[in-house]
Amino acid sequence: MSDSSTPARNLSLLGRSENRLPSSPGEAQLETFPNRSPHRDYTIELDYPEFSSLCPVTGQPDSARIHIRYVPDEQCLETKSLKFYLAAFRNHAAFNEEVVNRILDDLSSACRPRRMLVRGEFSSRGGVRLSVEATL
Question: What pTM did the predictor assign?
Answer without folding.
Answer: 0.85
